[in-house]
């Protein structure tokens, strides 16, 4: 059995309200064990027999759609993968913890897609951007509220969806996984 984290996209934002206790109950009925949530923004820790993260992500999204009628997706990572993403960030420890984010991606875009994102964003904001392993690292220097570097902007250029967490939240999730 392996311990994972599911990072849901579009949960408790944009009208997709879901109580974490209800999500935990639904997942426990579907063979997910030791289900625990971390803050109310769609971070779910669970134990499951080892399998490819893509298969787990599909299963999680299906459960949420089937039980709650919410169209979502999940990015699934092991504790080591989560730590590797944090270690890979060139901005962690440099920028403010609440402004430095990792966008966890469903897949690995090619270098040309990352280049397109960086070129299309040039001149649109002060954010610092760096590609990663199934991740995009961003320092939202001036905050996320008015940034043009949105999830939709990123997904259109990279060709895959992602969900972002700041480094403070990632560290808290890793701590809970230990």
Automatic annotation (TrEMBL):
<dbReference type="Pfam" id="PF08002">
    <property type="entry name" value="DUF1697"/>
</dbReference>
<protein>
    <recommendedName>
        <fullName>DUF1697 domain-containing protein</fullName>
    </recommendedName>
</protein>
<dbReference type="InterPro" id="IPR012545">
    <property type="entry name" value="DUF1697"/>
</dbReference>
């Amino acid at each position: 059995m392996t311990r994972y984290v599911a990072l849901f996209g579009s949960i408790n934002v944009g009208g997709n309200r879901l109580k974490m206790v209800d999500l935990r109950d639904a997942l426990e009925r579907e063979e997910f064990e030791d289900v625990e949530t971390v803050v109310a923004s769609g971070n779910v820790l669970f134990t499951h027999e080892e399998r490819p993260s893509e298969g787990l992500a599909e299963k999680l999204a299906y459960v949420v759609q089937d039980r709650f009628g919410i169209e979502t997706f999940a990015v699934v990572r092991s504790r080591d993968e989560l730590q590797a993403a944090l270690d890979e960030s060139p901005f962690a420890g440099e920028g403010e913890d609440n402004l430095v984010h990792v966008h966890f991606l469903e897949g690995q875009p090619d270098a040309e897609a990352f280049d397109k994102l960086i070129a299309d964003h040039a001149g649109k904001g002060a954010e610092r951007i760096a590609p990663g392993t199934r991740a995009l690292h961003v320092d939202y220097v001036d905050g996320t509220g008015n940034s043009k570097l949105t999830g939709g902007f990123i997904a259109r250029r990279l060709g895959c969806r992602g969900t972002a967490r700041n480094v403070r939240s990632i560290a808290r999730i890793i701590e809970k996984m230990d």
